[in-house]
Amino acid sequence: MTMTVKEFSGRMPSGLWASAEEAARALSRSKKVIIATHIDADGISAGAIASKALDRKGVEAEVRFLKKLDEDAISVLAKARRDIVWYTDLGSGSVSKLGETRTVISDHHVPDVSTGSGEKTGQARLFDFSPVLHVNPQLHGISGATDLSGAGATLLVALALDARNADLSHLGVLGGVGDLQDHRTRRLEGLNREIAALAVSAGVLEVVQDIRLFGRETRPVHKMLEYSSDPFLPGITSDEQAAISFLLGHGIELKDGDTWRTWAMLTQEEKDTVIDALREHLTRKSRRPDTILRLTGEVYVLKGEATGSPLRDAKEFATLLNACGRHGRGEVGLEICKGDREGMLQEGLALLRDHRSALSQAISLAKDLGVTRMRNIQYFDAGADIEETIVGTVAGMLLGEAGSDRSAPMVAFADSLECGDEPKAKASARGTQDLVSKGMDLSAAMRRAAETVGGVGGGHNIAAGATIPMSRKDDFLGELDRIVEEQLTSRARREG
Q1: What are the two backbone dihedrals, phi and then psi, of residue 138, each rounded to the nearest 5 degrees?
Q2: Alpha-helix runs per DSSP H in 179-212
Q3: Measured CA distances, 110 to 89, 304, 366, 453 (Å)
Q4: In terms of Cα–Cα distance, which of 163, 134, 166 is closest to 150?
């Protein structure tokens, strides 16, 4: 069954669609627009949707990439003298600081409290007396953490601009996957799910029930198992020879001639054999049923991409975009999203190789530094030796390694390049789905701990970040440790 944009719009709160239509009207009347977007996969996907939609409308647009939206960035954008600044995957937390610049925001983060809330009426036009047109699911009672990403919110505006932009809906899916919105239930939920259905109808996406390990398209099967961290495979994760032996022991040929076989190259019968064997392995290792369930779920295949390409699987595509953004080349990821499969794709693949090399070196350094365990959290401090843009990824990789302590979230510090009156530190935290199921919410914990030391923080329940004064690291850690304990014991008391 196909879905039209009209049917799609009818499946969301009318106030949310009305906000997208109002933003679209303002943008279509503009001649020059600046698109300011975040540097991660969600932000790059959102920026590409906005850029492509304005290209089609004949509106001149310039894209700028921001690690964060602070007062200096806002000032620079305001002085650029464009008809509108369109913030994608950014802006909601800074509405009160945007001044009188005509602005569109398509975002999913928690809005600035001064903007009020629209969920009571659903129909209310919140900014009748403001230059800001705000498209955000949170203003209409919809979760921006699980139900709609920044790219998804931006897609709503693009669809309101022109129904033909349904062919960009796979980028909305890409943003949601890049922002881990399919992580909790192993599939996209809420409006993300409607976007996926629209993408299927547009012929740009296929939704498949399959193994959810990273590297289905590009990694040799044994490497896919070796690097698995969600779920962690005891006795296989981080052990290449064990992964090879496991596959051979179940009759899986590892090579086709001289070529290592990827998951995508296996027959369905071979895939079923491996999945059943992994379930049995996890059961023998006394893994929890919900952990075993995490082996499989929905995966999102971009139909226009070649088998074996890192762009075919949404998880791998998102990783390539993160590599571009984290290494200061967001424009490369943007052009790949917009369709460049030649020069920019080659640059993107080179950035991905560099990204993996940088992560490998950073992991070794973090291990040398050592991890300090507190009561409820663990941390390492990389200082200036690991870039702030990748230190969170390193924290997650350490947590996923064999022999790691997965009973507490990993917090990583790196020196921030942010200028100010005093030096700042970037703190990144990563947890496990098991900890989240026990009540841990790193987004709330990092935000509260950062605020107690004069910093800012937020993110997702399983992955979050903060920027704090460098001199207050110990105070921050103490407060974070207390908050995480509070979260975990509170859930335990309720269930007891």
Answers
A1: -65, -25
A2: 190-201
A3: 11, 34, 32, 21
A4: 134
Question: Which pTM was predicted?
Answer: 0.88
C-alpha dist (Å) from residue 244 to 81, 96, 210, 237: 59, 56, 21, 11
- What φ, ψ does residue 326 adopt, rounded to 5°? -70, -20
**321 contacts 37 by C-beta, under 8 angstroms:** no
Lowest mean pLDDT among 100-104, 203-207, 259-263: 100-104
Burial 482-491 (b: 16+ CB within 10 A, else e): bbbbebbeee
Q: How far is CA 264 from CA 87, 102, 489, in A?
A: 37, 47, 43
Place of tokens 């890049």: 178
User: For the chain, what's the residue count?
Assistant: 496
The first and second tokens of residue 240, run together, are 């290449």
- 293 token code pair: 């369930």
Helices 314-326 and 330-337, axial angle in degrees (round to 10)? 150
**Phi, psi torsion values for 411, nearest 5 degrees:** -115, 135
- CB-CB contact of 107 with 150 (8 Å): yes
> Residue 131's pLDDT band (boundaries 50, 70, 90)?
confident
- DSSP, res 217: T
Q: Where are the alpha helices (DSSP H) in 286-329?
A: 289-293, 314-326
Ordered alpha helix ranges (H), 162-236? 169-178, 190-201, 221-226
Amino acid (1-letter code) at residue 217: E
The residue whose two tokens read 């069954």 is: 1
The pair of three-digit structure tokens given for residue 25, joined into one six-digit string: 């009207």
CB 121 within 8 A of CB 10: no
**What is the radius of gyration, based on Cα positions, of the chain?**
22
The C-alpha angle with vertex 270 and arms to 265 and 271, in degrees rounded to 5, equals: 75
Peptide bond into 131 cis (omega under 30): no
C-alpha span between 326 and 109 (Å, rounded): 20
Tokens of 86: 């369109």
Q: What are the backbone dihedrals phi and psi of residue 157, each rounded to the nearest 5 degrees, phi first?
A: -65, -40
Looking at the DSSP bridge assignments, the partners of residue 301 are 206, 313
Written as six digits, the tokens of 203 are 């012929």
- How buried is 28 (Cβ within 10 angstroms: 0-12 exposed, 13-18 middle, 19+ buried)? middle
Using a 10 angstrom Cβ sphere, with 0-12 exposed, 13-18 middle and 19 or more buried, the burial of residue 458 is: middle
Structure tokens at 92: 């909601």
**pLDDT band for position 458 (cuts 50, 70, 90):** confident
